[in-house]
Amino acid sequence: MWSTLVILSLLIAPLSPVAAKDHQSSCVIKSGGTNVTDDSPAILKAFRDCGQNGRIVFEPTTYYVNSAMNISCLDNVDINIRGTLLWSTDIPYWLKNSMNVGYQNQPTALIIGGNNVRINGYEKGTFDGNGNYWYQWISEQPNKSNYPGRPHGVTFANLTNSVIRPS
Ligand SMILES: *[C@@H]1O[C@H](CO)[C@@H](O)[C@H](O)[C@H]1NC(C)=O
Ligand SMILES: *[C@@H]1O[C@H](CO)[C@@H](O)[C@H](O)[C@H]1NC(C)=O
Ligand SMILES: *[C@@H]1O[C@H](CO)[C@@H](O)[C@H](O)[C@H]1NC(C)=O
Ligand SMILES: *[C@@H]1O[C@H](CO)[C@@H](O)[C@H](O)[C@H]1NC(C)=O
After folding, report:
1. How far apart (Å, rounded) are the C-alpha atoms in residues 126 and 96?
2. What's the CA gap between 21 and 24, in Å, rounded?
3. Mean pLDDT (the chain, rounded)
4. How buried is residue 25: exposed, middle or buried, by Cβ count under 10 Å (0-12/13-18/19+)?
5. Is the model's pLDDT at 15 over the cut of 60?
6. Which end of the chain has fewer CB within 10 Å, C or N?
7. Closest residue (by CA) to atom 11 of ligand 3?
8. Which helix (H) or strand (E) covers residue 115, if one does?
9. 130 alpha carbon to ligand 3 midpoint, in Å?
10. How far is the CA of 163 from the centre of ligand 4 (A)?
11. From ligand 2's centre to the CA of 7, what distance in Å?
12. Does residue 161 sit in helix, strand or coil?
């Protein structure tokens, strides 16, 4: 399934708990606490350790996402998001490093894919692409429409038998 969401400014649909499954592992991700610390390595590690038959927990805090992440091959996992993932304002980085997913001229900053994935938002889970920062920047460029290389915040790619729920 392909469901691309808007530009880096995404909000998100907070997500709801679905029937809990047996978890063989559980990973609670710690935020570094400032945007000087890139939380992407900790996030990727959690998905490596708990992305199959596990549970991934984002606490009620802000996670600073300074790097593109391809999180695929998930299998039977709950992703519980009670906080915010905030993308960095480093536009040159994103223009250079966002991932091409074959959609127009628009790459993506985050890929989530796999089977039997439940993303639960508890009415709080947020993906904040720092869109206003981009809109301001774009408004200062000669080419204002559909700026080449401006990424989508999130692409759900090859995600099957899965739910993304707000509460
Ligand atoms: C970090 O946060 C400050 C204060 O909000 C902001 O001005 C700056 O652009 C941010 N830097 C990155 C890389 O996100
Ligand atoms: C993301 O990772 C998956 C699984 O390793 C791979 O098949 C896919 O090509 C990757 N996508 C990108 C854009 O790097
Ligand atoms: C302006 O945007 C259009 C549409 O994405 C693109 O085809 C064109 O190459 C861009 N021009 C410049 C100078 O970036
Ligand atoms: C989705 O799966 C197809 C087939 O395995 C693969 O070619 C494609 O790169 C995947 N898409 C992404 C964005 O990972």
Report:
1. 25
2. 9
3. 88
4. middle
5. no
6. N
7. 143
8. strand 110-120
9. 22
10. 19
11. 20
12. coil
Burial of residue 133 (CB within 10 Å: 0-12, 13-18, 19+) is: middle
Distance, in Å, from the CA atom of 7 to the CA atom of 127, rounded to the nearest integer, reads: 11
Summarize pLDDT for 30-58 with one digit per residue, the tens.
Answer: 999 999 999 999 999 999 999 999 999 99
The reported pTM is: 0.85
The pair of structure tokens assigned to 95 is 């223009």
40: DSSP letter: H
Listed residue (48, 68, 46) closest to 58, CA to CA: 46
Mark out the alpha helices in the chain (DSSP H runs): 40-50, 91-97, 131-139
- Structure token digits, residue 43: 């996030």
Under the banding of pLDDT at 50, 70 and 90, the label for residue 21 is low
**Pairing state of beta strands 155-160 and 2-4?**
antiparallel
The verdict on the CB of residue 95 being under 6 Å from ligand 2 is no
Cα 63 to Cα 124: distance, rounded to the nearest angstrom: 13
